[in-house]
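Question thread 4412

I'm putting together a teaching handout and wanted feedback from people who do this every day. The idea is simple: show students a protein as raw sequence, then show them the structure tokens that encode its fold, then repeat with a second protein so they can compare. Below is the first pair exactly as I plan to print it.
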Amino acid sequence: MVYKLKKLVYLKKFIFAGLLSAMVFSAVPSFAAESLYEQVTQEVLAKGIDYKVKHRLTTDGWLDIYVLTADLTNPNIEVIPVNSKKELGLRETVDKLITDNSAVAGVNSAYFGMTSKYSASFGPEISRGDIVSVDTDKNLNANQFGTYFVDKDGNTFFDYFKTTMMFNVEGKDYFEFASINKITQMVYPVYLDKNACENTSQLDSRFSGLVKLKVENDHITYISQKGETVNVPDDGYLVVLSSEYADAYLQYLAVGQSVKVNITSSFDLNNIETAISGGGVILKDGAKPADIGEMATGRQPRTLLGVSQDKNTLKLIVVDGKRSNGNNVSIGASIDESIQILKDEGCYYGLNLDGGGSSTMAVKNPDTNSVEIVNSPAEGSARAVMTAVGVVDNSEVGSVSSLNVVPSSNVSVPGGRITFKVEGYDDNMHKLSVPAEQVQFSSDDTSGMFNGNIYTYGAADRTNITVSYNGISANLELSLDTVTSISPDQSEITLEPGESRTLKIKDGQPWMWRTW
């Protein structure tokens, strides 16, 4: 089985001239900078997960676009919200969030407060049918923070979530919850369950005087003292009250009372499998909606989530942009350019995620097996964020079923040397090591010669190379070229009498250096 090169680089040149350009590029809207040249590097991370980088020259400057593609029809692929595994409400960098949640890649997602290293994301988060967190103070007076939803039947949609949550005791509403599992300044009551933490020790270290009501089977089973650490029940929840709220309400509360949380929301939370929140919904039914919600104007670093019209493909996109502390040259994207980028990637629906200094993409490096930040964050380093979108590959690792052969060059001169790197992949595109001593190389040109994985080119115009391992083969073709010029690796040298220097001579090909 032959597998195409894992990393593909291709170039596009865009030439604009008179009426012809108007006809050919009529799809490029007038609000966008025109593309003049583009280099694209593409890589397969796993079966159903692709990653590519577009380095584009536009009439307004350079633009770097990073794209993750997830095949939503692949049962092994999940796209979920991920948070800190260390502590509730702790801000961490995207690469840390992706690593700790065993994802292959991901980007930053929801907006959040930046007052300290602890915060809360804006909007609902639901993962694998479990409610991770919900807040009750968003989108009350206007559509600001949109959400990508997937329901239990697999239906995908984008909308603005609104909810209220009341704590009802013996049939009477007592107070409103600020959130489920979201903690900011701990002023208002919070609903806390096992999706947040095992106990309240970390919260108690951050906030003094908290009182917890333990609720099991719709009854209050325990009321703590102020500051007492309490375990979260397995089949229940805690109502966490600030000292001030406890002083106001404890006189009306007692162990044994029947209680209920009355939730009024724009969607049935129990019917949602996935919820990932961000800013405005900026692409709906293939067009820009009249109300685009929360989104910064001007050219900015952007993070976007898009879905194709058939809802089978999801895209996560980061567009680099300039900021005072960053060192990238990418100019960022406007609102309309962001919409066009989504459409260029085949998206019919799109959500703006948190941008600016938060815009970050992290991808697992298959060679090192570590998650690395691949874009250039606008502030010069990755910002700690509240939550990320993680792309998870749940497929099992199998045996080598295909080979990826990477030559140091596809062309040579007679006597030139080409080195081959051989990689193995299973059916799910997991990268596997291939013992070098078990790899066989052969050529159809008898004038060429292999020494291990190094091939000395013969005299044939074209040479077919076969690489084999454990009954699996891959083929590729090399071609002959001619030397058209030579140049040294240094344009100028200074020598003392009797001193010598070795020069490398480049003989007309960017891949070929020789020591003369």
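The second pair follows. I'd like the answer to focus on this one:
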Amino acid sequence: MTVPPAAPDPNAPPQGPASPAPAPSPVPKKSLQANTLIVMAGTLGSRLSGIVRQQVINLFDTTLTDAFNVAIKVPNLMRELLAEGALVNSFIPVYKTLDAAERRKLAQSFSGFLIAINLLLMALGIFAAPWVVGLLTSTHANIDRAIAIYMTQLVMPFLTLISLSAVAMGLLNADEHFRESSFAPVAFNIASIIALLLLPNNATWLAFGWLIGGVAQLLVQLPALRRFGLLPEPRLGGHPALGRVLKQMAPFTLTAGARQFLNLYVTRLLTDASQFKPGTQTGYANAEALFTMANGLFVVSPALAVFPRFSQHAAEGNWNEFRSLTAQTIRTSTFLAAPVSALLLVLAPYAVSVYNLKSGFDPNRFEAGSGILAGWALALIPWALVTILLRTFYARERTREAVTVSAIGFVLEVGLYRLLVPAFGLFGFGLSTTLSGILMAFALMLMYQRALGFPWQAVGDHLARVVPLALLSGIVAWLISRVMPAPGFFLPGLFGLAVAGGAGLLVYLLGATLLKMPEMAGLLRRLKR
């Protein structure tokens, strides 16, 4: 393995003569383990409450839920560029290089700029809704286009709400205040659930329930921002570092464009009545909620918790610690993701059954959700590697390289959809995502190796143990599921998931204990505390 010299790394991102030295954190840092547990707890609460929200949405008529899932695609396509993804990955590395006074000024300028852009896009989205929905749906659509257009116009303000919430989350995360930001999505889900249960069962209130959740997610973070002195006063004015942030954000247009192309193709494919039945769009959303719960809890949470520390090591030029943190984060994430991947693969029908609170559930939703989730389960480990490695590039302000790989990967995924979905049906969606993730992870590893020296042995030895263990746990769960009640309704699904999934997980943990894996020892220490 190539070891960079102790001198400043030539591949490190230039900070520029105008960039002050990194300011110390205004509060004592918690340990990475504590930060990771806080983020994972918040993510767990968010995903579980998100499952409940999705259960409530599934109580609505399929005509409404299919149209709703198309409508929310419009603001969600833009939120990655203007909200969570671009903001966190481009704002924090620049923010961490400034002193306290300049951080505040940058936050004011950036939040003012973001509000202005969001208001413009919101207005455009409302007026262009008929054209956008026509672009997102197939010529022979299996959804009600008129309802989808109406709901798209209603949910467009969500883009502004989620962008402001992302500003708050980014400011809190930059100073490692993860508790306050990690539980904000829980507020979104709880507010949405209450609204959807109380409001009438129609298109208007289904959309308003989504907006009410967005308001709640923003409001619950404001007290923490004020308490830590981070609440910005948005203003339309320049800041010397704003150009650096926007420069880092600019390449995200490439990724966002590629991802929008991917989402456009998938949505049109799912709404094609010649290939898929009504309810497939909602089944896709159900599978997506379960997959994002697993991915968010075991992949995104560790990556989010360590990203400020990655940025700090990069700003200081501490590349030995940077490499060590990379290996540690990959091991932690894949140790958790591997058994979940195997269990979701074999128990997908049981997992999707949690949405069917009524015995007369839509079989098309159930079939679509089961097939798509089983395929996506395979993608957890490859995308764990991709998610973590991308953060290492963003932290070094090597955004262009990272988003180029991402954009190529998304375009490749579209090609794989065209090839694999006709051959493998619903399972082909996840298989395409898995293959593109493997190729992207390998490309990012090679680029990391060229710049810093990738910890191949540490990562390889770890994966050589967790993957066979995960396979064994999946086999055990599958064998037990053969004698369990058939999935479909909520109670049999939950029972089968608990018994077969619990047995498979127990086998995995016992194997990890026998192999004396350090991740297992760390997990046991935290449980004892």
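Top answer:
Good format. For the second protein you could add a caption like this: The longest helix spans residues 280-316. Confidence is low (pLDDT under 50) at residues 1-29.
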